[in-house]
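Hi Y.,

Following your request, here is the sequence exactly as I used it, all 516 residues.
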Amino acid sequence: MTIERMILELANKREHAHQGGGPARNEKQHAQGKYTARERLGKILDEDSFEELDTFVTHRCTDFGMEKNRPLGDGVITGHGTIDGRLVFVFSQDFTVFGGSLSKAYAEKICKVMDLAVKAGAPIIGLNDSGGARIQEGVDALAGYADIFLKNVLASGRVPQLSLILGPCAGGAVYSPAITDFVMMTRGSSYMFLTGPKVVKQVTHEEVTTEQLGGADIHAGRSGVTHLVADNEDEAFAMLRKLFSFLPQSHREQPPLADCSDSADRTDPSLNFILPDSTNTPYDMKEIISTVVDDQDFFEIHPDWAKNLIVGFARFNGRPVGIVANQPQVMAGVLDNDSSIKGARFVRFCDAFNIPLVVFEDVPGFMPGTSQEYGGIIRNGAKLLFAFAEATVPKITIVTRKAYGGAYCVMNSKHIRSDVNLAWPSAEIAVMGPEGAVEIIHRGKLKDAEDRASLAETLMDEYRELFANPYNAAAKGYIDDVIEPASTRFRIVKALEMLAGKRETNPPIKHSNIPL
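Below is the corresponding structure, written out as tokens. Let me know if you'd prefer a different format.
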């Protein structure tokens, strides 16, 4: 065979591989509002940056007539490319080939690209659109999934792992995305569940649709499985690229600095008047966050789950940070089971990848009640405490109003290695609020008082004088400074600049034992 003939044959094979399951199946994908696996990579990556690996891999199954059907690539496209000029490794499951079902060869392709990502120190992006394990391969397909799970675990904390769910993701397949750092779904076209509606009905007699069981909104608002939801794939790709802009390449690198036209010493007098006169009146903490970050650009993570705690990414003078904040507008900003888990997971991600943490605190305590206690609020609250205490990245806390009880300790207090703790003049740092404290401390006086209400008000005023201000904590060094709210942005920028060279390590151990 001449070299010209060999080159022509190569081109033909490559062209065949690029067709996926063929024109008819590709059109069916489009009819469902979905791109093909290869089109998705073109949307996510910089133009002409994709370099494919394992184009000619085929499955090795010889049962059920499978030996006669060996499409090149075997249903998953793997390789590397760039986003904004930065290296990433990718795999994109192709639903047009065997329904995207996973074989042993398919799994080996994904494992190979994940190994390369860890070696090269670059993020892994997985585009999931698969019917699950390839039944014809039996235990080999299950082994392939387990191989991928192991690679996910070994890559965790070493390189960022991002998962997009763009179609079905069911059974054991859900565990790979669940291990990754961020999960994104598309509304109406993607779903995740361990057991489908038919099995649920058979076992529990529940009637439930695919959307009700594992749709994007369910996982965004109720289970917390997914971090972000998009209305369509184009929106999902835009979200992915924005999220990526805040992240470093690996645990060995710092997050990327961005150009900033927003003045570092900008003040905003509106912050001096943003809190309500009554300490029991809610307000939107997101207004404070957006006012102080660069260009009012706050990228919220998990916006629909555990809304009493806000987490997300922003920048101060071009420097990426992770923000954790109580939300007084929802449940008064108390910490409960879900918000504690949400915060702990986010804090640990930021710490793993050298992203400084900025905390805005207005917390009246932990949510009381049997449902919270039975749900494990002690264990779950300890997760958030553990995560903040373990974190060695620069940590800054701004107390805007309430900081009561154990929640004060947990929300990145000076006592668990926060670096800079600032308070607004409105801050109240105490074991509990005035009403509850007076009822306990002065129970006897109140019981015998002729004018109980008047006495209680007087005693609460005394308590406020002692504790409903930040100066008692500042006198003890637990608060580094009491600041004018208008200067909050400038003070955070200066603190981050001061802490840029921070290097702190934990004791040399195999790993800690967070109360999972």
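Residues 32-245 form a domain with the 2-enoyl-CoA Hydratase; Chain A, domain 1 fold (CATH 3.90.226.10).

Thanks again,
Q.
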